[in-house]
Amino acid sequence: MKSEQEIKEMVKEKYGAIANSTKAQNQSSCCGSTCGCSDVEFSVMAEDYARLPGYVPEADLSLGCGLPTEFALIKPGDTVVDLGAGAGNDCFVARSIAGERGQIIGIDMTDAMIVKARANAARLGYRNVEFRLGEIEAIPVADDTADVVVSNCVMNLVPDKKKAFAETYRIMKPGGHFSISDIVLQGELPDDLRDEAALYAGCISGALKREDYLGAIMEAGFEDVRIQKEREIEVPAEILERHLTKEQLKDLRAKKVGIFSITVYAGKARR
Predict the structure, then answer these.
(1) Cα four-point dihedral sign 86, 20, 157, 114
(2) How many domains does the chain have?
(3) Crossing angle of helices 89-98 and 111-124, rounded to 10°
(4) Residue 128 CB partners (closer than 8 Å, separation 6+)
């Protein structure tokens, strides 16, 4: 089993390479240019942002698993923090809602992503969007800053999820809330399927069971925890048949076992 530092270095290397690739390259390789997908080339994760106001194609690397900004209840003037901002996709969508009076802060631990995101913001002339280098387990944002936190398929990559949610709680204003899209598991996936499914489902090896994921959110102190959207991730049949027994396939098709994208809402109580 890899250590937390080894996981972080692996993620940094992978997403650094993705930052220097095009959206088309990332889509064709399923979970990014370095995941090494085999002969099945398509994305099963990403949802289409193109219809959302504020969408910037150059900032969309097709790395998410949901549309958290669509559900985030952002208001004009809000301060929004995006955890794992990548090239700035969700930040720019959030800005279109928060407006000129809003403040948008994107956090990412990959230098190449920060460079790309800042270049996108500069090209667009956005003065109220900034990007900071940092990890979600130690977010470089002051206490009680965010009205809204968003994140798209990033928490599953963080080794210490309890600490990440505690940090999310810390930076949120009393009465604030988050909308986070992520990958969760239902039931127990065989180890070898988890390893290969990572190539097709956003690198899910760090994903938790749904109940454990929601439990970590509640343990951090959040209230009103609820799923806003849920979507099953379909793993190609040839992958399943290569790694699962007939009984395991039966359980999967009976929905006892599966990989899901969920968008979760949770709030921080007012003082």
Answers:
(1) negative
(2) 1
(3) 40
(4) 95, 98, 100, 101, 102, 103, 104
**Tokens 């559900």 belong to residue:** 71
In whole angstroms, give the CA distance from residue 58 to residue 65.
18
Task: Provide CB contacts within 8 A for 6, sequence distance 6+.
Answer: none
pLDDT tens digits, 105-125? 999 999 999 999 999 999 999
pLDDT for 8 beyond 70: no
Query: What is the 3 state secondary structure string of the chain?
Result: CCCHHHHHHHHHHHHHHHHCCCHHHHHHCCCCCCCCCCCCCCCCCCCCCCCCCCCCHHHCCCCCCCCHHHHCCCCCCCEEEEECCCCCHHHHHHHHHHCCCCEEEEEECCHHHHHHHHHHHHHHCCCCEEEEECECCECCCCCCCEEEEEEECCHHHCCCHHHHHHHHHHHEEEEEEEEEEEEEEECCCCHHHHHHHCCCCCCHHHCEEHHHHHHHHHHCCCEEEEEEEEEECCCCHHHHHHHCCHHHHHHHHCCCCEEEEEEEEEECCCC
Q: What are the structure tokens assigned to 93, written together?
A: 């969508």
The structure tokens listed for 194 are 């988890």
CATH number at residue 61: 3.40.50.150
The token pair that represents 82 in the structure block: 């995006």
Prediction pTM value: 0.85
Given a contact cutoff of 8 angstroms between Cβ atoms, the answer to whether 146 and 180 are in contact is no
How far, in whole angstroms, is CA 269 from its chain's centroid?
24
> Residue 175 is part of which domain span?
4-267
Closest to 242 in 3D by CA, of 14, 39, 45: 39
pLDDT score, position 80: 98
